[in-house]
Amino acid sequence: MSAFRTDGGLRIGITIGLGAEGESLWVNGIKQNAIYLAEALKHVEGVASVVLVNTTAVAITPALPWDLQRWPAVAFDAAKDALDVLIELGGQVSAQQTAYLKERGTRLVSYCCGSEYVSVMESVMFGRPMFGYELFVNPRYDAVWVIPQVAGNSLHFFRTLRRREPRIVPFVWDPVLLVQAAQALPGGGEYRPRTGARRLSVMEPNHDVVKFCLYPILIAEEAYRAAPGLVGMLHVTNAEHLATHSAEFIALMNQLSLVRDHKAAFVGRYDTPQFLSAATDVVISHQWDNPLNYAYLEACWQGYPLVHNAALCSDLGYFYPGNDVQAGCARLLEALDTHDAGHDTYRHRQRQAMSRYLPGQRALTQAYGELLHGLMQAPLT
Questions:
Q1: 145-202, pLDDT tens digit by residue?
Q2: Could you tell me the residue ranges of all domains in the chain?
Q3: Considering only Cβ atoms within 10 Å of each terminal Cβ, which end of the chain, N or C, has fewer?
């Protein structure tokens, strides 16, 4: 019997796919997503335990950068005999593993939190290998759950390939990891007013067309042309490779006054809390059909002005619609001019608005309770 097994109530596992024993939580959002979902499910009546289930050969050790007492992690083989539900989120289970789980009556859920249609499309069209000829699409899911921000581009992709009717489920976020990462930073990493010209940051991952840096750079450029004395520096993270190896990106950037006046720097990857605290006064963002993500919530929770076009959280930060660079510029100039005077009120208001995503929030807990009830009542596939 596994150490985490509890008599009575649902025993739930959520998959992760570790790449290294001490892999950072800030490499991508997948492990954070698993932790936040685990925290949310703990609040559901009838859930006895939630564990993170690693599907790779990487060992579970104290090097993991999270509290293993609060969020226990185990290898698949250690978990497989003590689960009522396995939610496949950050690591895939094989056909053989699926068959074993099904023999024991375990429900299997596909939890979809990525813009997979876009990733596959770009892989096919632009020679970015993903799975080659060895694609395994599990035909034995009992449910497919999709978070709202990826439903627009990927829900119907999931429906056909995974042969199940998807359900759009509540988005979950928790500031716990952000607070832990920021606790050693000055002022807990929260925004503090500064005098003089401001430091603008663009922190898009630049992996694909969904979250790319070009429009935020153009918004910063328009603001610099309108009020050059307000802009001290523009930092674009996750862009060093573009500024070094992409002739097209270099040519575009050389058209900008920010670049010509040596007011822009294209740098590598940084953990969000550290970069916000060390180098940021305003965050400028843009997304294409992925209108909600952790980076927005991290910036707003810490009180940083966020200029963004994410319609699912338009009540946060300084929202502009679509691809409207001029509207984005107006919101940026507004933030530069007015934010400091009300920064404490802003931070409080942001946190109140984000309460809808937090584990333990009543409607969110009820929704996941209903999903689990329906899952367990349906026939096993």
A1: 999 999 999 999 999 999 999 999 999 999 999 999 999 999 999 999 999 999 999 9
A2: 10-174+358-377, 184-356
A3: N
Beta strands in 116-225 (DSSP E): 143-146, 166-168, 198-202
Same fold yes or no, 10-174+358-377 and 184-356: yes
Secondary element (H or E) of residue 306: strand 306-308
Torsion over CA: 17, 19, 24, 27 (sign): negative
Instruction: Please state whether beta strands 73-75 and 85-88 pair in parallel, antiparallel, or not at all (unpaired).
Output: unpaired
SS3 category, 64: coil
Closest CA to 144 of 217, 88, 66, 71: 88
Question: Which tokens is 11 given?
Answer: 């025993």
Please answer whether residues 316 and 305 qualify as being in contact, where contact means their C-beta atoms are separated by less than 8 angstroms: no
Separation CA 306–CA 303 (nearest Å)? 9
Residue 13: helix, strand or coil by DSSP?
strand
Quote the CA–CA distance of 265 and 246 in Å, as a whole number.
15
* Cα separation, 297 vs 103, whole angstroms: 41
Element (H, E) at 331: helix 325-338
Is CATH 3.40.50 the classification given to domain 10-174+358-377? yes
Size (the chain), residues: 381
Q: Which two tokens stand for residue 216?
A: 């935020």
Architecture in CATH for domain 184-356:
3-Layer(aba) Sandwich (3.40)
Distance CA 54, CA 91 (A): 7
State the Rg of the chain over Cα.
22
pTM of the model: 0.94
- What is the spatial order of strands in the sheet that 282-284 belongs to? 264-266, 231-236, 198-202, 282-284, 306-308, 318-319
User: What are the two backbone dihedrals, phi and then psi, of residue 303, each rounded to the nearest 5 degrees?
Assistant: 90, 10
